């Protein structure tokens, strides 16, 4: 009984190994796509940050400041997610 369980774990381990080895190309493409999306989000964050700073300098209405702040926080959250995805893809590739 113990032998049968041992064999089963070996088989599943080898399947995982084969699956990971077969998708190296797709991981590389995926990593490039994630990196491009991250860079695009970073540009949008910089633009939103400068827009918020200029609104503060102009002493804009509170509604405008809150809207700009919320937009910036949303973009920062998305950028953080994409950074984690890029790191995850980098770890898988190794």
Q: Mind explaining what this structure looks like?
A:
The structure is a single chain. The chain starts with a helix and ends with a helix. It has three helices and no strands. By secondary structure, the protein is mostly helical. Helix 2 (24-57) runs antiparallel to helix 3 (62-93).
In summary, what is this structure?
With 94 residues, the protein is an all-alpha fold. The chain has one domain (27-93). The protein has 3 helices and no strands.
Query: Which consecutive residue ranges, at least 5 long each, have pLDDT under 50?
Result: none
Beta-strand content: under 5%
Distance between the termini: 36 Å
Spatial extent as radius of gyration = 23 Å
- As a percent range, the share of helical residues equals over 70%
Write the H/E string, N to C.
HHH
What do the pLDDT scores average to? 78
Question: Major sheet: size, sense and barrel closure?
Answer: none
What is the number of independent domains? 1
Structural class: mainly alpha
Total number of helical segments? 3
Shape: elongated
């Amino acid at each position: 009984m113990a032998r049968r369980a041992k064999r089963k774990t070996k088989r599943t381990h080898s399947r995982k190994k084969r699956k990971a080895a077969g998708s190296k190309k797709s991981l590389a493409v995926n990593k490039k796509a994630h990196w491009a999306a991250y860079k695009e989000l970073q540009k949008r964050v910089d633009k939103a940050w400068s827009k918020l700073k200029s609104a503060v300098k102009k002493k804009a209405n509170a509604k405008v400041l809150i809207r700009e702040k919320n937009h910036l926080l949303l973009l920062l959250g998305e950028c953080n997610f994409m950074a984690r995805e890029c790191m995850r893809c980098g770890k898988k590739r190794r």
